[in-house]
Structure formats: C-alpha cells, structure tokens
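hi! just following up on the protien thing from before. the input was this:
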Amino acid sequence: MPSLIPESARTLNLDGQEAILVRQAKEGDTASFGELVHRYEKTVYGVVSRMIESRDEVDDLVQEVFLCAWKGLSCFRGDAKFSTWLHTIAVNTTLKRLKWLKRRQAVSIDDDASGLGGCIADSVEVEPFEQVSSAEEKAAVRSALSKLPDKHRIVVTLYYFEECSCDEIARIMGCSVGTVWSRLHYACKKLKNELNEMSHITEPVMVPTKGQVS
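and the predicted 3d structure came back as:
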C-alpha cells in the first residue's frame, strides 16, 4: 500500500523544517516564531551572557533580540541561515548595549565570560593548548577573557562557544574572513600571555578546547 505521507515530508531535514517555520512566522504565525525562539533561546542567551555581566541585563537583551527578530522578519531574505541572521542581531544588540553601559558607567565592563577553545595553530606559533581543569585555572581564563576588547571577545564567543564557522562570523560581524582570523589570532596570543603572567598560577595555564570550560 502506498505511503500516505508525501515524499517531501518524509525526507524533510531540520533545515527544511526551519525554513517552513520561518516562512510561517513571516506570515504572522506567532506559534511558528515561538518554536524558533525555543530552538535558539539558549544560543542567544549564551552569546549575550558572555558579553554582559548583569543577569537582569542579559534577560532584557535576550528578549530585545527576539523582539527585533520578530519585527525584522520581513527583511530576512534567506541568503544566510536563520541562525546566522539571529546571531547578527544578538551581536549588534549586545555591542550597542555595551557601548551604552560604558558611557553610563565610565568604567570598563567586567563581563562574566568564560572559557575559550583552542589556539589557531597555523597563526600562533605555540603548541596546541591543553585542557583547563581546575577551578583556579577556569577563573584565570574568565579573567583573561574579560580583558579582551569587545570585537575580539565576541569573535571568540562565536567561534569557540557557538561553533560558528569563520564564514558565518564574517557575515555576522560584517567583516572579511581574514579579519575574523586576525582577531582570533590576536585573542589567542593575548589570552596566552595574560594567563601565563598571572602570579597566582603556579604552572602556565593553557587554553581549553571547545566546551571544556563552563
């Protein structure tokens, strides 16, 4: 007996399902947009929380990101993945808030960012970074990462935490892939120097691979 389920539905992958949700959301379907929020809420929270310290500020920004996405859905053409488009909104919204906070507080932002992936072996002439395991070392990495300039910290967050490709980051940041690699190169060197200069660490601290620091 022939299947009653259309072939297109049986073979529909995750990207295809997402495309349907996006199309329906663009037509005003709030339930479809709610599903997109559910899929990406943790991701957006991760991006924002590694740049902003205040929990209340983070919660507000996450809501603002999705509100901007809802209002701007008509502008989403599908040239890039929906996740890339959403990351762009999250990054721009967060950077805008950081600038506002810096003007208001007139001090450096001490964010609650944490961890880093590996180094760029071809760009930085050091051995591959080893795993960070102790709480003391994790605290050292958080402190070092918080000292990076915003544009370098956000590239690090997207590449190592959100596992975005350099092409995706270039789209999100509105820069070239070469600029992305340059910022990662700078960040790796800066972090390694910061970590190894910390007097309370008895052994040089190496930067962890993706997902090893929480």
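Residues 82-105 form the longest helix (24 residues).
Residues 3 and 158 are 43 Å apart (CA to CA).
cheers
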